[in-house]
Amino acid sequence: MESSVWRKSSYSGDQGGDCVEVAETSVAVAVRDSKNPAGPILTLDPAAFSDFISWATDAG
Question: Which of 17, 21, 46, 49 could connect to 6 by a Cys-Cys bridge, CB 3.0–4.6 Å?
Fold first, then answer.
């Protein structure tokens, strides 16, 4: 995942808050803590990531 392009939401500011970054591969979406980029990475298949985003959006 070192060569992956990581991005975070445009809604995230630069204040160092609670943000996650995502990177897409051909078979998965990787998620990591933006404050700890060397830390653990959660990988989800695209359908599971879509479900997660729907849940997070609905939860507000």
Answer: 21
Extended strands (E) in 1-60: 20-24, 29-33, 42-44
CA distance 21 to 29: 10
In the DSSP assignment, the letter for residue 17 is: -
What residue has token string 């990177």? 23
Total-model pTM: 0.77
Give dist(CA 2, CA 52) in Å, integer.
Answer: 24
Chain segment 35-52, per-residue pLDDT in tens = 898 999 999 999 999 999
